[in-house]
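Let's practice the habit of predicting before peeking. Look at the sequence and jot down your guess about where helices and strands might fall. Then scroll down.
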Amino acid sequence: MALIRQGLLFGAGSAEPQEQKYTKKIETPIYEPSHAAPHLLELCDATKTRRLLSEIDAADIPEDEKRFLRMAAWRHAVFHYEKIADYYAHATLATQRLMEESALVIVDFDAAIERGFVRLCDEIQAQFLEEYNGDK
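Done guessing? Here is the structure:
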């Protein structure tokens, strides 16, 4: 178990500080799309979702429970955001708008705050500031 004391990282059983691998600096990631537009099927991996949907469809349970479980199964879909950003750069304006509404891409940070997409980030930042007493 490692211990961080006054910005220095001490390994388990070691009195000698090691190089700290983590930073307190918080930055918004910015992705530069490539010039190639990926195929739509490359944007998401729904392998686990499809497996769960098959199990749900085969289950001997009431239909209303199946509907709920089908919706929940989609939370296992894996989105490939770099490819989504590449796709967005080549999409129609209508598709881009819908991708922004779905928070698949965030191009306007203020609009993302208004829509509640960065509320979690604000909560994490508040916790971070509380933990580190506002140090940066």
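How did you do? The chain has six helices and five strands.
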